[in-house]
Amino acid sequence: MKWVRAPAVVGHSGGMATTPRPGAHHCGIDAAMDVIGGKWKVLILWALNDHPRRFGDLRRTLPGITEKVLTDHLRELEADGIVDRQAHPVTPPHVEYSLTPLGRSLNTALAPLGDWGREHVLNA
Amino acid sequence: MKWVRAPAVVGHSGGMATTPRPGAHHCGIDAAMDVIGGKWKVLILWALNDHPRRFGDLRRTLPGITEKVLTDHLRELEADGIVDRQAHPVTPPHVEYSLTPLGRSLNTALAPLGDWGREHVLNA
DNA sequence: CTGTATCCTCGGGGATACTG
DNA sequence: CAGTATCCCCGAGGATACAG
Question: Higher-confidence residue: A124 or A25?
């Protein structure tokens, strides 16, 4: 989500000697939030959980998302090492997106949150 | 974060008979994301995890946040049943914010995500 | 089919000043 | 101390058209 955080120090503790990079994080959760903070990120993660999907497949799975936004989010997730992009140079183009091991571990870490939402927010 | 989602149906499954409310969610994760989607929400949750805090205390704990934004987020978290606001009618005013049981359960569900972020994003 | 290229909207968030 | 009240910016996200 490209939030550039102010020098928030919640968990305080020892200071990070050398600030990792501009827009540094300060605790695990907001670091993770930066990765999954896009409007459709978690939905993409979820959609990719069971098996790889092609671009058009994803678009159809996420009604309402535009090509531009889907591309943007996929590129960011790819840059973060969450999803893997496999392009087969044929005509018509054939591209498959899948979760990397890191992406799978993220999805696992997301599960409790999903359970929480299902139990406490949904089924009102 | 007040995103009004399009009719996304990732987890498919049976359809929600009666749509819960405008801006409905469709799986636990994005339902949860709606609750913690503010820029400072998870930081507030984190700050409140160990013990209640007063308004000014929170503001000092979250360097960079403004009164307006802190108030907005606290009001939203309160509306979502995540934080509890206890005002003591004295002068000067004394107000304490704390996590509700629901808030504590949310924080627990957030923990794995925090671990993930700490392990895979931080300490680059 | 899988994307680019443009342009634009909109509201979350920030800055600042003020009040009970 | 604990907030309101205003005004405003900016960029993520959307709409649309086009391309290899």
Answer: A25
